[in-house]
UniProtKB/TrEMBL annotation:
InterPro entries: FAD/NAD-bd_sf, FAD/NAD-binding_dom, FAD/NAD-linked_Rdtase_dimer_sf, Pyr_nuc-diS_OxRdtase, Pyr_nucl-diS_OxRdtase_dimer. Belongs to the class-I pyridine nucleotide-disulfide oxidoreductase family. Its cofactor is FAD. This is NAD(P)H-quinone dehydrogenase. The keyword Lyase does not apply. Residues 364-472 form the Pyridine nucleotide-disulphide oxidoreductase dimerisation domain. The lineage of its organism: Bacteria, Bacillati, Actinomycetota, Actinomycetes, Micrococcales. Residues 23-344 form the FAD/NAD(P)-binding domain. It comes from Brachybacterium hainanense. Keywords: FAD, Flavoprotein. SUPFAM superfamilies: FAD/NAD(P)-binding domain, FAD/NAD-linked reductases, dimerisation (C-terminal) domain. The keyword Amino-acid biosynthesis does not apply.
């Protein structure tokens, strides 16, 4: 059964609204869990949130917040390392700040990002407490219809939301030790900058940390099992990033797969499948994540899991069991904090009888926080080439943008996928500094089915990188009428 094959329940399946407050139990304190809890509380439910990993979950404590804080620090160094071309002297450090005028105190960097993560977690707690959500610290487990065991209590629930998250995938022959062989959750305990970081895995996590640690000053080798970094993303965007990596001195080992990693002296040895050995000071294993769905009584309760261990859900976050919903990485829909939050809110609106719009994953914008950043939304060029979408692809380089020239930006582009008949914007790609911010107008166009002409007609600031969005839309409109 696929997520879309689960029938959306009728209104009669939802919780009755009455004088009695519906009881909601949320298992998991990440974005899917705490957003669900806040939504249910605001809708008048009696809400208990159970978490054994801290409020905010991995997104706040060990993933999104700390990793993007580290990357924000790296961005500053990246900017300074290339500023010699702008006429700033004693700042051009050939792409590696640690070898030039700037050095990195990684212990201080990591201490700061841990403080920020804890502060964000406390903000989440404050919001939940203000909304009247009861918080239990412990591991939640399904023990029967509408019943959850947690922190020595048995909780009765009219509806349950599972926001169980995921954990880093471990290679059997590369067991993390938290010192030299690391997952991304363990990087923040390092006190000294790795002299040579080997990153195994060229997906989003691997690419982001490879980019970030190179900017901080580490020598970096990226092991990719595919022909390019970021397999599955826009090919042109991946090519630009690959070129940027090479320019910055990141060694990319394409079509290579790591089979093992071991400590040797004060370093590590990573063995590739064909027998070659790579030596470095540390290795980061970034080969995906596995859902945290085991040992919680899900299967005994009838909650269907996919072979991957992810929970099956429909587009309103309902599982195969009436009254049980799921949100976030444990569903395998999209591994994004923003999607988890939408799933959690959608689940509670549906459970409590409110109007709800099903999640449309094709309208979700996402970004890769490398240097340069990559952001995408909607239909892709691959969809057009494969015949899944009727569209035209138009690409506009950043090289001619005045603001890009002022900032010394040499790499990047805006790509739009437009319907050939109506000129409706179907999707887009932005490769640029702060692409994560620039993608929003395209996401609005995709969501509201705006045309390229409408996108082009909105005033933009001059000079600005956003001007390239309007110019790309303008050229798409004109080209399709040629």
């Amino acid at each position: 059964m696929t997520p879309s094959s689960l029938a959306i329940p009728a209104a009669s399946d939802r919780l009755p609204r009455s004088a009695d407050r519906p009881r909601i139990v949320v298992i998991g304190g990440g974005p899917g869990g705490y957003e669900a809890a806040l939504t249910a509380a605001r809708l008048g439910a009696e809400v208990t949130l159970v978490t054994d990993s801290g409020l905010g979950g991995a997104a706040v404590l060990t993933d999104v917040v700390p990793s993007k804080t580290l990357i924000a620090t790296a961005d500053v160094l990246d900017l300074v390392s290339g500023s010699g071309t702008l006429g700033i002297r004693d700042a051009d450090t050939a792409g590696s700040p640690a070898t030039g005028a700037l050095t990195v105190d990684l212990a201080a960097v990591n201490a700061r990002l841990r403080r920020l993560a804890q502060a964000q977690s406390l903000d989440v707690r404050a919001g939940l407490e203000e909304a009247g959500v009861r918080i239990l610290c412990g591991r939640g487990r399904l023990i029967g219809p509408g019943r959850v065991s947690a922190a020595g209590e048995e909780l009765e629930a009219d509806a349950i939301l599972l926001a169980l998250g995921a954990t880093p995938r471990i290679l059997p022959e590369a067991r993390p030790d938290g010192e030299r062989i690391l997952t991304w959750t363990q990087l923040y305990d390092l006190q000294e900058l790795p002299s040579h970081l080997i990153v195994v895995g060229s997906g989003v996590t691997g690419a982001e940390f490879a980019s970030g640690y190179r900017a901080l000053g580490s020598e970096v080798t990226l092991v990719s099992s595919r022909d390019q970094v970021l397999p599955g993303t826009d090919g042109d965007a991946a090519a630009v990033l690959g070129s940027a990596f090479r320019r910055r001195g990141i060694a990319v080992r394409s079509r290579s797969r790591a089979s093992a990693a071991r400590r040797e002296g004060e370093g590590v040895v990573v063995t590739l499948e064909h027998g070659e050995e790579l030596r470095g000071s540390h290795v980061l294993i970034a080969v995906g994540a596995v859902p945290s769905t085991q040992g919680l009584g899900l299967e005994a309760a009838g909650v269907r899991l996919r072979p991957s261990g992810h929970i099956e859900t429909d587009r309103v976050s309902r599982t195969s069991v009436r009254g049980i919903y799921a949100a976030g990485d444990c569903t395998g829909v999209l591994p994004l904090a923003s999607v988890a939050a939408v799933q959690g809110r959608t689940a509670m609106h549906h459970a409590l009888g409110e109007a709800v719009a099903p999640l449309l994953t094709g309208h979700v914008a996402s970004a890769v926080f490398t240097s340069p950043e990559i952001a995408v939304v909607g239909a892709s060029e691959e969809d057009v080439v494969a015949g899944r979408v009727a569209g035209e692809v138009r690409t506009f380089p950043l090289a001619t943008n005045a603001r890009a020239k002022m900032q010394g930006v040499r790499e990047g582009f805006v790509k739009l996928i437009v319907h050939p008949g109506t000129l409706t914007v179907l999707g887009g790609v932005v490769v640029a500094p702060r692409a994560s911010e620039l993608i929003h107008p395209i996401a609005l166009a995709v969501e509201h089915r705006l045309s390229a002409e409408q996108l082009a007609g909105v005033s933009t600031v001059y000079p600005s990188l956003s001007g390239s969005l309007a110019e790309a839309a303008r050229q798409a409109s004109m080209a399709l009428f040629d």
